[in-house]
Amino acid sequence: MTVTDTPRDFTALRALIVERAPDFPRRLTQVASYALENPDDIAFGTVATIAQAADVQPSTLVRFAQSLGYQGFSELQEVFQSRLRERVLNYDERLEQLREHTRNSGKAGLVFDGFANASEQSLATLREKLDPQQLQVAADMLAKAETIYLIGLRRSFPISSYMAYAFGKLGIRYVLVDSLGGLAAEDTSFATPQDVVLAVSFTPYASETVTLTQKLAARGVPVLAITDSPFSPLASIAQTWFEVQEANFEGFRSMAATLTLAMTLTVATAERRSKKK
Q: Is the entire prediction scored with pTM above 0.90?
């Protein structure tokens, strides 16, 4: 790859990193995973702070950039920075306007506006990335399943529990794996290749979700995953998976995009099943 061929926008760069990932040595894979999961940190950090956060040597960041065709890490970092310029400017302007409009409403009003803005960003990102054909494939996959096993623990539990509620109302057979009483393994013991596992987990990935899903995949049970990175342990074992990157406010991540996707899959599955009757 020549210098002129190197990606100058984040979308193209991200696609290149995902394409090259299977061939990266371990340390470069480590950097790639960190970069895609923490693009803002790559944009704003120094070589030293990024290397420390990714648990690699600073020279590894340079090697990573050069492996993608850049002359050095600073040139790669410019692509991450260009991704943020317009978005951050718009965000700051909107938040400043919100502050002006809510000065008399107190701090709680600003907190609400911050979370509302994070939700809007999350939904906009999902809308931009989502492939309608992939949605159809996922709905068909769920519609054909005899039983849908829902695995989403810790922060993801509201998603799996909502889908359980909705599937129940729609007459679709499901098992909600909630680890209550330490019975998660027993809850999934009857799953077969005629069923589907729908697993939901985000960084830092609930270990029990990953372990259960890996065991079910090893038994030939199809996996549909909702996660946040191509380097997620769920992505590598799923027949199809959706990438959802939620924006955050003051360190608290939104769940708006994930819940919207979950609602879409639930209703689309019911619609596909109704056509088969």
A: no
